[in-house]
Amino acid sequence: MNRLACVVIALAAGCGGSGFSTGTATLSGITPSPMSASATSFTGADGAGTMLMGWKISFWEQGDGADCQSNDTHRVAALSIYTNQPPASGKKATLELGDVGIVTDSPPTVAGTAAATMGAEGVGQIVGSVSITEFHLKTDLSADEIKGAISAGGNNSSGAGVALSGSFDAPVCE
Q1: How is residue 68 annotated by DSSP?
Q2: Gap between the Cα atoms of 118 and 104, Å rounded
Q3: Domain boundaries, the chain
Q4: Please, what's the b/e burial string for 84-96 (b: 16 or more CB within 10 A of its CB; e: otherwise)?
Q5: What is the arithmetic mean of pLDDT over 68-94?
Q6: What is the largest CA-CA distance in the chain?
Q7: Radius of gyration over every alpha carbon of the chain, rounded to an integer in angstroms
Q8: Which DSSP string corresponds to 92-160?
Q9: 121: which residues sit within 8 A by CB, 6+ positions away?
Q10: Burial (CB count <10 Å: 0-12, 13-18, 19+), residue 102
């Protein structure tokens, strides 16, 4: 019986991974180019100091199916979407379908239903919009996937304009 327990423990340790993997993504204008994305929920203060719930979309250098919780994955960009929803125990923010403005203020001030801010390797002062095309809920009403597209622009380290555009299919990574 002890041998069997040791074999099970060894197999589980050998498999590794968090059990959470990234989905497909493209995003031009960033080097290295992101090839996958994942989503995590957060609670934080917006630019006015109001505690709100939101979602962070992380763009990864690794391809679709990478472990989004591994120290070996390399995040090349992140988009934080703050909603107007206050923190509630055991709940996560819901996202409405449609466009959310990306502003340079970090954190952004939410004046309507949502506001976003974005950072990317080698690109600053990013403004534009993110279009949420799908916000998938499981039967227990928790989110398991966010899909969308980004159309934005910023400046590289020498001040030249950089266009950022692409799409993401971000499974929840938590």
Answers
A1: T
A2: 8
A3: 21-171
A4: bbeeeeeebbebe
A5: 91
A6: 66
A7: 18
A8: -----SEEEEEESSSSPP-SSSEEEEEEETTBEEEEEEEEEEEEEE-TTS-EEEEEEEEEEEEE-TTS-
A9: 30, 31, 32, 76, 77
A10: buried
Q: Residue 138 has which token pair?
A: 């499981």
pLDDT score, position 139: 67
pLDDT tens, residue by residue, 23-50: 999 999 999 999 999 999 999 999 999 9
Distance CA 42, CA 3 (A): 42
Q: DSSP state, 32?
A: S
CA 26 – CA 164 distance, rounded (Å): 10
Distance (Å, whole) CA 174 – CA 169: 16
State pLDDT tens for residues 99-139: 999 999 999 999 999 999 999 999 999 999 999 999 987 76
Torsion angle of C-alpha atoms 143, 88, 17, 26, degrees rounded to 10: 50
In 3D, which of 21, 35, 58 has the Cα closest to residue 144? 21
The first and second tokens of residue 68, run together, are 């989004």
